[in-house]
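Inverse folding, one chain.
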């Protein structure tokens, strides 16, 4: 079995030049380009850490797990650990950049833990209210990061990062497909159960796609697990499971030369025909057609809406789970 983690895709460790030894770096995209060649950014690679980019000037094309995003001023991009990323920034692209390790933030509550998930959206185009709010927080983080004293600075930065992430959570709040708001998650039992389910799913999606198996592993009923998934993701447990399997299928088809039958078996399908039907249902093309379409910054741009009065984008184009926007811009 080919483990995605062992694929020959470069993994970038967390080793910031600025303020070494800290679990967070507050810098700019322009500064990053001083140390990282553009050729490397354009090639497939993975990060061992989180990276948040708020574009303030110019344009650029980014690909996360083979889905392309066209970024421009007001674009917010969250690259999570182990996602396959490529970037072709134009020479005028500028932006604020936050990099942090998984261990740096304060203990992730269910609300923040829900954000640290490859099945969640990774790209938003922000309106003026969101930009102003994030700008204020980023200014405080930049000021604190530049202080020479580090004793209390680390704790202050941890809490400012938590505030920043909570603001991102507010931006990507979700509703059911019919437009009704989801039950508040916060630190509720549904949020905690969903986080536990996602952890279990990461370890078991290759061997089972049965809802009953996950409920048994979590010592809960299938009904309780269904309610947690609907409360948090606005979709069924089965859809979350299938989204994770489809994401891995896309990764293996893009970054390995495994025969389609071997990909199917690795993901727990005993028949290639069943895998093909599954893949067509999730990705809207056959595995072979998807593989032939892959290349540098492949695929059509994600369907991102923007402009006055339009919905904030919260659908995850990579996985097929649709996170509808909770509110419309004023």
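Residues assigned per position:
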């Amino acid at each position: 079995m080919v483990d995605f983690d062992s694929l020959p895709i470069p993994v970038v460790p967390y080793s910031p030049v600025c303020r070494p030894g800290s679990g967070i770096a507050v810098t700019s995209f322009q500064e990053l380009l001083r140390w990282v060649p553009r050729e490397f950014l354009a090639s497939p690679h993975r990060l061992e850490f989180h990276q948040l980019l708020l574009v303030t000037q110019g344009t650029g094309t980014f690909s996360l797990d083979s889905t392309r995003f066209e970024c421009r001023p007001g674009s917010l991009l969250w690259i999570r650990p182990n996602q396959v990323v490529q970037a072709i920034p134009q020479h005028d692209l500028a932006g604020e950049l936050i990099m942090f390790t998984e261990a740096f933030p304060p203990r992730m509550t269910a609300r923040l833990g829900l954000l640290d998930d490859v099945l969640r959206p990774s790209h938003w185009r922000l309106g003026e209210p969101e930009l102003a709010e994030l700008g204020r927080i980023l200014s405080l983080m930049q000021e604190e990061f530049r202080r020479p004293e580090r004793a209390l600075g680390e704790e202050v930065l941890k809490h400012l990062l938590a505030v920043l992430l909570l603001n991102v959570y507010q931006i990507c709040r979700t509703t059911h497909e019919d437009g009704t708001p989801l039950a508040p998650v916060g630190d509720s039992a549904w949020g905690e159960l969903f986080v536990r389910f996602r952890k279990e799913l990461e370890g078991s999606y290759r061997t089972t796609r049965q809802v009953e198996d996950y409920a048994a592993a979590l010592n809960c009923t299938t009904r309780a697990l269904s309610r947690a998934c609907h409360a948090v993701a606005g979709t069924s447990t089965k859809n979350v499971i299938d989204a994770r399997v489809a994401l891995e299928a896309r990764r293996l088809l893009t970054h390995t030369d495994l025969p389609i039958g071997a990909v199917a078996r690795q993901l727990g399908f005993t028949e290639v025909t069943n895998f093909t039907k599954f893949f067509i249902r999730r990705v809207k093309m056959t595995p072979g057609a998807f593989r032939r379409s892959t290349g540098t910054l492949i695929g059509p741009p994600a369907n991102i809406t923007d402009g006055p009065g339009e919905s904030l984008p919260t659908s995850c184009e990579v996985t097929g789970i649709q996170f509808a926007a909770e509110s419309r811009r004023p």
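The CA atoms of residues 114 and 195 lie 6 Å apart. The longest helix spans residues 128-146.
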